[in-house]
């Protein structure tokens, strides 16, 4: 079985993954992407490739520009022995797999579909080792076959390192006894536990020779040995969080990366350096809130590190100064709204704090962003480390409101703008509420809801706000369809028909968000991150509700573009196209947000999601996953759309097309009246020949048209469906 995925020749430019399903969402912040990075390899000072959850990331110019490609495999550990031959521990929809490349990453073969690896290490072309949670395996034929050399039901193994073909170490954690180190001196045939009391899980190990090595673990522990591991002694480090990676270039100079709390910063990532073998450690860099994982020096000056939420940093002077090679903020966002396909805002809270020794504008205090080009660029509008906003609402391109809290004092606040966010002014402050939602029906009439029984109303654009009687203490969202009729949700669902003067209970179950398309049809999103998602729906204004449990985590936000098309988000994204009768949990390759808080669509196709750690995602195809597509690896000389085959067809047919240069490719199917019935492809593609399948099982017989748009090229062809 062969996976063709990464690199064009030896240039390390990611060009394509043959994905079974291409997700309909792409990253707008942070960039180039926001998934967690797991491992990487340095081929030379310019060519780097990094891997993570459903994607690969590469650069050919030292990190100035990046290429990102999604894939149906998630790679967690890689090991290369030269510029051509390498292995990867990965997983796909069927479980753990081991991959191998012999041409620098252009082709990858699945060598094993049995093991879920934590780490792997190759010393030469034939000989390599890998660890799972509870076993050590070895290959002597380049990964064709693997033999279990050590297994235990008690150990949790995490990393390994070999100094030569015979001598190596594995670290992990015993639930009853603490951290463990195993050593072999005969190539892994026999493993012996080494001495020392390690009262913490151990995460990484590195040796510069057969005697001198270091291992690091949780709670900031650093241990060193000078006798091959027979005895270990603790060194003093600065971190008190999870140390995830250690790497030395000689017996004196080394680096450690980690994540979590440390004594000089709040939660985030950090790098420690020593120039005297670990006697002293200096904090070189702090990243917030992103934690750091693997760290690898190219030489004494050039060092790379990767981490969570797409973090990639680099130094060229040994760590005195670090460069953030990503773009965008990593503050949390809680609300997003657009007034058309171009103009929109995202609001949230300041989480990053001050970085240290890193050249970047990432560590800003921006909590309101605006875009005027559909999210291609986001501009900071409001920065304040003492404010966080939970919700925003705009009635047009100028007038908007944002509500939230001053965390230090606990006071709740309402801000407004009359010039599209160029200026924001405090309108109202309360010392005994916590505002979480704002909604306006026109430029004058609006409502705010929140914790501790907070419901406020204005009839003059917020110049004056007056409190209304709340039906309950906890309120998370408020929604009105006109000046009189509205609903709130929190500890139940409550309705008003007199503008909020009085409320009556309609649903005792609680929820996080609600949305109505008219006076009758509405939906409530419910559940927590630790529970299943629940959608409540009504077709009679809330008098009766239908409950539907979703195979998803709890849902935080819900939005309908019309009575049929709806989206809801939490840790997952769910979609319905029939008014909520059926829901689909979307699995989007390459998009694994740490947490989604708000979703907004401007029409059936174009929408955005915002969430934790700077997440801003966009879709232009309704967020659906594309049909399976097979790439044919030949470079065409022109654009071309061929006749579908078979034609006539029942119920499916294949459409082949070619593009001569990288283009944004859109293929849509229309009925004989010109109504769009399906989008088959909508994404940027490199030059190549492609084939896509169209399944019309749910469509009536008749004449249909399929159209290819790629750059300035447009061509339409006819096909006939006979059911």
Could you explain the architecture of this structure?
By secondary structure, the protein is mostly beta strands. Among the domains are: about 120 residues, no CATH class; about 140 residues, Neuraminidase; about 90 residues, Immunoglobulin-like. About 0% of the residues lie in helices and about 50% in strands. The chain has a 5-stranded antiparallel sheet, with no helix packed on it. The chain has a 5-stranded mixed sheet with strand order 27-28-29-30-33, with no helix packed on it. The chain starts with a strand and ends with a strand.
Summarize the structure.
With about 725 residues, the chain is mostly beta strands. The protein contains no helices and 66 strands. The protein is globular and about 80 Å long.
Poorly predicted sequence stretches spanning 5 or more consecutive residues: 1-22, 262-266, 353-363, 627-634
CATH class of the domain at 328-470: Mainly Beta
Structural class: mainly beta
Mean pLDDT: 85
Rg over alpha carbons:
28 Å
**Strand segment tally:** 66
Alpha carbon gap, first and last residue: 35 Å
Count of helical segments? 0
For the record, the CATH architecture of the domain at 328-470 stands as 6 Propeller
How much of the sequence lies in strands comes to over 45%
Largest sheet, in brief, is:
5 strands, antiparallel
Tell me, briefly, the overall form. Answer: globular
State the helical fraction.
Answer: under 10%
For the largest beta sheet, what order do the strands appear in spatially? Answer: 1-10-9-8-7
CATH topology of the domain at 328-470: Neuraminidase
């Amino acid at each position: 079985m062969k996976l063709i995925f990464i690199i064009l020749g030896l240039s390390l430019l990611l060009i394509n993954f043959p994905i079974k399903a291409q997700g309909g969402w792409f990253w707008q912040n942070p960039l180039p992407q926001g998934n967690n990075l797991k491992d990487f390899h340095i081929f030379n000072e310019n060519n780097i490739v990094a891997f993570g959850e459903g994607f690969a990331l590469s650069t050919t110019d030292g990190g100035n520009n990046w290429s990102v490609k999604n894939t149906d495999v998630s790679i967690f550990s890689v090991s290369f022995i030269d510029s051509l031959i390498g292995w990867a521990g990965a997983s796909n929809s069927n479980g753990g797999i081991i991959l191998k490349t012999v041409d620098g990453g252009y082709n990858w073969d699945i060598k094993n579909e049995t093991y879920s690896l934590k780490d792997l290490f190759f010393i030469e072309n034939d000989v390599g080792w890998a660890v799972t949670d509870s076993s050590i395996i070895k290959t002597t034929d380049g990964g064709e076959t693997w033999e279990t050399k050590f297994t235990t039901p008690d150990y949790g193994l995490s990393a390994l390192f070999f100094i030569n073909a015979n001598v190596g170490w594995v670290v992990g954690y015993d639930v009853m006894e603490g951290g463990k180190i195993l050593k072999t001196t005969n190539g892994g045939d026999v493993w012996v536990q080494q001495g020392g009391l390690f009262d913490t899980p151990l995460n990484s190990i590195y040796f510069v020779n057969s005697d001198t090595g270091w291992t690091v673990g949780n709670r900031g522990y650093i241990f060193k040995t000078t006798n091959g591991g027979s005895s270990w002694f603790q060194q003093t480090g600065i971190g008190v969080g999870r140390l995830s990676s250690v790497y030395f270039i000689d017996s004196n100079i080394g680096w450690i990366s980690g994540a979590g709390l440390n004594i000089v910063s709040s939660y985030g990532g950090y790098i420690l350096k020593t120039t005297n073998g670990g006697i002293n450690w200096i904090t070189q860099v702090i990243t917030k809130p992103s934690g750091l994982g693997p760290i690898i020096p190219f030489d004494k000056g050039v060092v790379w590190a990767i981490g969570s939420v797409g973090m990639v940093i680099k130094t060229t002077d040994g760590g005195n100064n670090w460069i953030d090679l990503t773009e965008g903020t990593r503050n949390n966002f809680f609300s997003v709204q657009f007034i058309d396909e171009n103009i929109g805002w995202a609001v949230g809270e300041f989480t990053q704090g001050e970085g240290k020794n890193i050249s970047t504008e990432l560590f800003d205090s921006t909590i309101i962003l605006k875009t005027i080009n559909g999210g291609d660029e986001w501009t900071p509008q409001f920065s304040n480390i003492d404010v966080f906003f939970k919700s925003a609402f705009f009635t047009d391109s100028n007038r908007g409101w944002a509500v939230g809290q001053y965390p230090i004092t606990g006071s709740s606040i309402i801000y407004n703008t009359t010039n599209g966010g160029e200026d924001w002014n405090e309108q109202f402050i309360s010392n005994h509420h916590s505002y979480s939602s704002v909604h306006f029906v026109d430029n004058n009439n609006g409502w705010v809801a929140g914790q501790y029984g907070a419901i406020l109303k204005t009839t003059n654009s917020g110049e004056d706000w007056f409190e209304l009687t709340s039906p309950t203490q906890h309120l998370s969202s408020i929604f009105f369809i006109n000046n009189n009729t509205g609903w709130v949700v929190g500890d139940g669902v409550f309705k008003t028909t007199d503008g909020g003067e009085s409320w009556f209970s309609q649903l005792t179950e609680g929820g996080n968000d609600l949305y109505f398309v008219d006076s009758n049809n509405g939906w409530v999103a419910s559940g927590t991150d630790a529970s299943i998602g629940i959608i409540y729906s009504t077709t009679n204004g809330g008098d009766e509700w239908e409950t539907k449990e979703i195979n998803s985590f709890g849902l935080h936000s819900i939005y309908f573009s019309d009575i049929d098309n709806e989206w809801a988000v939490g840790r997952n994204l769910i979609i319905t196209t029939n008014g909520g009768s059926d829901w689909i949990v979307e699995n989007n390759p390459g998009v694994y947000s740490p947490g989604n808080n708000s979703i907004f669509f401007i029409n059936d196709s174009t929408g955005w999601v915002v969430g934790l750690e700077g997440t801003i995602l966009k879709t232009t195809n309704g967020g659906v996953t594309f049909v399976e597509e097979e790439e044919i690896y030949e470079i065409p000389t022109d654009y071309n759309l061929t006749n579908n085959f078979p034609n006539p067809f029942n119920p499916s047919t294949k459409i082949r097309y070619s593009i001569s240069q990288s283009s944004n490719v859109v293929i849509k199917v229309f009925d004989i009246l010109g109504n769009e019935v399906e989008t088959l492809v909508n994404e940027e593609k490199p030059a190549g020949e492609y084939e896509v399948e169209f399944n019309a099982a749910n469509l009536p017989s008749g004449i249909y048209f399929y159209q290819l748009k790629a750059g300035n090229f447009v061509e339409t062809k006819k096909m006939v469906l006979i059911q």
